[in-house]
Amino acid sequence: MNAFITAVVVSHDAVDYLAAAANALQLQSRKPDRIIVVDSGEGFASEQIAAASGFDYLKVARDSSLQDSIAAVLEGQEQANHWLWLLHDDSAPESGALAALEAEIEKSPSVAIAGPKLVQWQAPRIIRQLGLTLTPNGAPFSPIHGQFDQGQHDDVDDVMAVGTAAMLVKVATFRELGGFDESAPLLAADIDFGIRARLAGHRVIVVPAARVQHAGLSLSGQRDRQWLGAAPKTALRRAAIHLRFAYGSMPLALAYWFFLPLIGLLRAIGQVARKRPELIWSEIAAAFWGYFTVGRRLSSRKKIKTTTSLPARALKTLRASRAEVRASRRADKEYAESVDNLATFEAGGAAALDGGAQRGFAASGGLWWMLGLTALSFAWWPKNVAVTADGLLPLSSNWWDLFVRAGASYQPIGLGFFAPSDPFAWVLTALGGLTFWAPSLSVAVLLLLIKPLAFLGAWKLAAQVSESAWVRAIAGLGFAIWPALQLAQLDARLPALIAALALPWLAIATLRVAQIGRITKSSAQTWTWVATAGLLLAIIGASAPSILPLLLIGLALLTLVRIKRIGYLIWIALPVFAIFGPTALYYLVALAHPLALLADPGLAQGSQAAPFLSGTELIASAPLVFFALLALLRKRIGLVLSLWVFAGIALISAYVIALIRFPAVGVGQAEFETVNGSPAPALIALGLILTILAAVAIDGIPARNARRVITAAAAALVVLPGLVLAGTQAPNLKFSDGRVVPSIVAAEADQGSTLKLLVLTPSTDAAGRKRLAAELAAGDGVHFEDVSLAYRFSIAKLASEKYSKLAQLVADLSSANGTPLAARLKQEHIGYLLIPAGTSDELAGLGMALDSASELEAVGLTDFGRLWRVRSVEQSTEVSDSSPWSITKGVQVAILLGYLLLAIPSRTSRRRGSEEIFIESGEDAQ
Amino acid sequence: MIRRVIALIAVAAALFGLVWFAPKFQFTVGDLPKASVLKVKAQDLSLVCPGGVYQTGGSSGTKLGAFEPIGAPEINSDFSGPAGTSMVIKGSVLTAVDPDGFAAQNSLLLNANQIETVAAEGLAGLAGAACERPSNSTWFIGGDTSAGRESLLILKNATKVDSTVSLEIFNEQGRVTGAGLAGISVAAGKTTVVPLASVAPKTKAFSTHVTSRGGLVAAWIQQKTVRGLAAGGVDYVSPAAPFGTTQSIPGVFIRGAADAVKLTDPAFADLVPTLRVFVPGSKAATVTAQVVGSNAKTFGTVVRQTLAAGATTDIPLTGLADGDYVAILKSDVPVGAAIRLHRVVKPKVDFAWLGAAAGQLSQVGFSVPSSGISKLSVVNPGSSEMNLELIQGTSAPASFKVPAAGQLTLKFAPGSKLKVSGSGKAILANLIVDVGGYVAAIPLVDYRNASGQVAVMVR
What we know:
heterodimer; A: alpha+beta; elongated; B: about 450 residues; mainly beta; 2 helices
């Protein structure tokens, strides 16, 4: 019994492909009985092709669906054993395709739908699709794709569904089933149709012998958006959602609908974790599409029910198993990587793919160096959980308090203050989170580990320019004992130190993203580096805003050099803009002091202007500068000159920032009125650049052993003065249990007291006038995260009635003139008064005044100064309604967490790493 | 290669030039907060005088644990406040009442001292002291509780707030520990007398730190000496000057040294001028004490000794002939010092505690007792001559010169009111009063108090 086969070529603007398809149709060994081109595109090219090929031609409306087109074709056609062969304009069947299909449908009368083996357009050795099915979760799944065709799948026949491209379908069945479901999105319609055919008792098969080249224009986004109704990624996701609604059980479908927005959000996060940030939008958009079009999704269920004669579980064997889905995903990833590798190879980066025979960090004794440097830092050994120094206060003992402060717009300092908190609070939150049970501990440990961690970073960075292990070790040491870094450690300049430790890693990550030096293997890896670089830039920017211009100039230059990577490189700047945005806006708009952005976060600490360091320290820096200069005589002059340009910029920024003065009066400190910017971060960046230059200088020496040994000895001289410096300096640290107020006050605050602590500090202003600084602190005192730069910049404008009332109270307290104070102390909710310990005349006078106030009761000398208790107090009944959350904070958290998720290497890429351990051990060990 | 070398030199020169020769400018971002200067009513200057000399056992001398003041002291004061202010004397408390509270408060506004000659059984001599502005921390270098000596700590609380006093006592060995040193309560408006023998018995040399919590107290140590049955003198130990590496003790006027030597009874063996030095802190002090006479006959002496930290040491200054001396101490760590000076005018024996003078940088006002002979001894430990300007009453200022590392003694008519200034240099002076052969020393105190202006910055 011969079938009557009508070939329907659905054409939609892909004229070039249509020509090839028409040509292929004419070459079929078994010619279709009728060929009709259904054109929903523009222009007359399709019609001309149809006419030239002798095909029938039917013009339909531009927005007509596949179902409409087929219905138009079938109108009035009543042949016996009538089959439709649906061809897309971008599918070109090989000559025996229809013959093979027909042979199969003749063999088995129960077959209602037969699909070909779809292969790549112009690359027929690669299978594009061989049947479709559903994953256990109900998402559409193409089990065989992207594989090299070696006949390994030629025994496949029964499948759940086939794609519409080159699908051969029995017209009777098509009519019985009511054709394609019009409420299904285009990419779900084929699977839906196949499943319905199956449920109605028909067979759906693929015929591997029938080969059809398919360009897949819709999925690769080469058709206009209207065709799929959305971007291809979103359309795919919509298809999955539709199928879930159509084939899940009713209660499940309803629950699915209810949670769909949440599921969309979670899946978006999951995509970030899989390093597919480009899918975030598709997931969320498709979820909302499904949520709001649920009526149409559920209406499909009725259509399914009318033709169903089999239970859904009968199709279970045709579904893909979880293992298959996993294997397929892995294969996709490997395929993507191999494509990237191929591209790299073609770009001439063959050497970069070669892991190289370099020895790793541990193998070349790096750990011993780190251990040695830790021993050298014994003076920083934490003797308690918290450390207090010139530039350092303990953090709050509760990590949540740190998190609340980060990104907040209200700050409980002074008399309450509305402004964005410093971006540095985010860094403290992250750092404190490492030891969340005692956040201050991580600061203490970090101070101890500055030198070894600096060594590690510089070692890794030096690995970009030198293969020799000892050159790297010298570079690591050179940076670890760079006098400016040592000075920062000695002064406990936490922000500068954090920036210093992050700098080399930022350089490495950015180079990876730009594909300079070693090349990343896949876009997933690149995203990991993008996120790492983004977070590091945010950390450095928040800690040392003064070097942010330097880094952004560097990033911009890198983007210019590697303009191809701009798609990745621009994302590096997102987190730093996210956490700096509110602060920058505040400085620019509310304060009109744009340069305030350059001020150093944390406590105000004065620094020396140029030449920045003491004589001894300058002498200790000299050898490194000398070796860095020698790099100018080496071969890699381009690299060396650009590094020297950066070194110059770093030095200039250090010079300029040290001459800018910022207000220093704020919470936590009262010693001076203004403070200059700290040149430490720029000097440390300079040290890192010089270190790399020195590594280039030493590495490039072309001679043999004897001269190398001499050079090695000379290079050792680079580090000797610094090591001596490191061994001879003692820091001024005080270790404590993390309290910042006397224990009696802390204990009361712990028990929920809202009473405030008034701290009075005699100080001197710039003109030498004596004055009394009054600071009203919450009961638990001022911790490091409470310190605010914005407050320092706005304090001059804060004067208000509240402030003058408090000032008058302080004046009356300090003059002990017998004015009644009890009511006013109550009104301010002051519970305690603290003055620093000391023997100066002002302190003694102040102490006497407070002693003679009948409203106060002397508690005595505590470890933070002399304390008085207010005899009759009144707890504040004001409930602070400031929620820790705000929209800006939500956005910041989302961006930071997203980047964090992206930065964590994904599971599959780790697996790959472990598989490759024997091939690339050197590289992996780095 | 040559180009490279030139580049090398250029980069090095640029670096060097940038670091050393770049112009220095200064640029301030943001606005600086200003402290608000507030006018407040200052606390009225109130001076507390010791009152009558206390006699143990009450006036009958037999009541156990009773300390009663005997006699009436002569209080000499000078009040010269602006219009609207007035002086109120309530018992032994003198207050300069200033309703506006804006008058500058110092010794020019109000100063006071007292002397009292007593001649009771076992208690005879001249006791003199400056009246005090109450404080919460006072050091005393002086006192003795060995046999025949009695030291009473007089604590006066003239405020409206009760006060709790703690003592730290440092004897020859170091800090004295024991009961009764803390928790001494001084009720508001009352006086508490603590016999130091109860906390530091049989101690020849000690220093006392009095700290109070709550209301401020005025404190003195009253020491008397009895040799056998004969009274050996009485005086107040005044609060010590701030500790320092230089301590100057003016007014070491030695009279009757020859007579003192003749008193061979062992009970009189301590009739030698004695230097007492206290070394606070934890580092031993090497002290050089130079006792300088006023003329060639009184060439003085020099003592050099290393003294234990945290301890009080007595150093006898032997071999000093009659004459006017001053003592200048130099030490490598801050110390406190005083001299016990004796006067033997047969048959009268008395002593006085001379504290190191607190340097007064501004003009100081003081009153001269209306009885006896009063002399102001000024010392200049510096290496250049010092100009002293003296205004007596409303007369024109008179100028005097104090030679470098030398002294000057000025004698005043009884009852004079004086103002003295050192034209920029600190005045170090003690007033030595001699009434009928008895001696007492009165320090110069400036009574500076917080004025009516306070600059406060709320942050």
